[in-house]
Structures are given as C-alpha cells and as structure tokens.
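Appendix B, Record 12. Input sequence as logged:
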Amino acid sequence: MSQKRIAVYPGSFDPITYGHLDIIERGLEVFDEIVVAVANNIGKKELFTTAERIALIREAVSDNPRVRVDTFEGLLVDYVMAQGARVILRGLRAVSDFEYEFQIAQMNHNLRREVETLFMMTSVPYGYLSSSIVKEVASLNGQVEALVPPTVYKALLEKFPRR
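Logged structural output:
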C-alpha cells in the first residue's frame, strides 16, 4: 500500500475566499489529504481571530473529510514534517506573488531539503482575489457576497455593519 499523500496549505485566511477554496479543491485532485494550516502572521493586522478563522474555514470545508483545519506556530517546515507531509501547497495569482513565494520556498527547502513547495495557479475567476481586497471592499460597504462562502459573508457583515 502506498503512503498517503498529504499537503499543507498554509496561510492567514483572513478571511477564506472562494480563491482559497479553489486551490483546496484542485489540490485534492493531486493529494489524498490537505491540511489547511492557519498561520498567525505578525506582519498583518488581522480582522478575525485565529479561532474565528478556523471556525469559518471548517464550515467552508465541512463536507470534505479529506480536508483538515489546524493552526501552527514556529517554522512551517517543522509543522509540515509533524503532519506527515512533504509538500507545501501555495496558490499564485500573479508574477508579483511569485517573487515573494519563490524566496519563501527556497528558504523552506534550505531548512528542510525533504519538503517541497507546489505552486498552483489560481483559476481565472479568482486571479484578482485576495483576503485583503475582500476586507477593504467589505469595510467600504462594497459587495463581496460572490467572493466568499455565505458564513464568511455573514461574519464580514458583523464586522462591517451596513451603513
């Protein structure tokens, strides 16, 4: 019997969008299991707490037993190894994403040679979509309902009540 193919999909997911879910769904075509690993990025001002983000992601992927949602601290590569995975899954929207992601992938590979990074291009409808854009548009009472799962939309309305 072959070993289970597990990938870790790390991110802040503040909040999770349909772009993230697209990467998860397509990643499941390659991997047996995906661990969505919610990171606490000290460089970003978070709208949702870690617990809120985990709950929103779990709700969004609740129909798929091949997706686990977790959080981690410390080095991503150590977390990946602890999960029995050897692959970090990352989504790329544009060339601007690639430069940063390439540097991170190289550092991760330098830290743990057995951990590889797999880049997936986002599907065309999500090429412009980011959590930051969703938060900004929602904060200005713009329409984001088509960009996020219903529970995330509801949570955004609670954070940014309509004027």
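The domain at 6-127 is CATH 3.40.50.620 (Rossmann fold).
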